[in-house]
Write a structure and sequence with these properties.
The chain is of the alpha+beta class. It has six helices and six strands; from the N terminus they run αββββαββαααα. Strand 1 and strand 2 form a beta hairpin. Helix 1 crosses helix 3, helix 2 packs antiparallel against helix 4 and helix 2 packs across helix 5. The chain is elongated and about 45 Å long.
Length: about 180
């Protein structure tokens, strides 16, 4: 599947679930799609989401609205390790400066079947995965719990919630700056 076809499938999936997005070309010449959405759990208001094409698929990257303080990064790394072991698809990562991300790659062979439906499902699955562990992220970021007790607190808080809420406006301000940093 060609890059343009993959981006078109992402676009169709976002239109299908009525999410606003921006399709743009980075300074590097790479074309991406940026979007934002609200948390379903109410624990955070905004995720920035970037869709990028890779050699044989699409990478979805959610930027969580945290910057982990340096003194808590070791504990957060432990939390990420426990959470990554628990999830079936995707992975959480932390940058050197403490930014947190959730990443998922969808192979192009899967997109070829029914691209817009696959992207709709993947977008919701990513948001559900991120929301599932949010309470634990919050507890570790503020230093209230160690990694393991934060993980169990997140699992206890897990419950069915409504679908993600689209934002009314395009990403702007600091959120847009973070996404355009490539």
């Amino acid at each position: 599947m060609e890059e343009k076809e993959m981006l078109d499938a992402i676009e169709a999936g976002l239109k299908r679930i009525k999410f606003k997005y921006t399709r743009k070309t980075l300074r590097t010449g790479k074309e991406v799609i940026d979007s934002s959405c609200c948390s379903r759990s109410g624990l955070t208001k905004l995720y920035d989401v970037r869709f990028l094409t890779r050699n044989h698929g699409v990478q979805i990257v959610y930027r969580l609205p945290y910057e982990v303080p340096e003194k808590l990064r070791g504990e957060m790394a432990k939390y990420l390790s426990v959470v990554n072991y628990d999830i079936l698809r995707g992975k959480f990562t932390m940058s050197e400066n403490g930014d947190l991300y959730f990443e998922l790659v969808i192979e192009d062979v899967v997109l070829e079947r029914d691209g817009d439906a696959v992207m709709e499902f993947a977008f919701g699955m990513c948001l559900g995965t991120v929301d599932e562990y949010l309470k634990g992220f919050n507890l570790v970021v503020i230093g209230a719990r160690d990694a393991l007790s934060a993980f169990f607190a997140a699992k206890e808080a897990e419950e069915d919630e409504p679908s993600p809420l689209p934002l009314e406006d395009e990403p702007s301000g600091e959120s847009a700056d973070l996404l355009s940093s490539e």
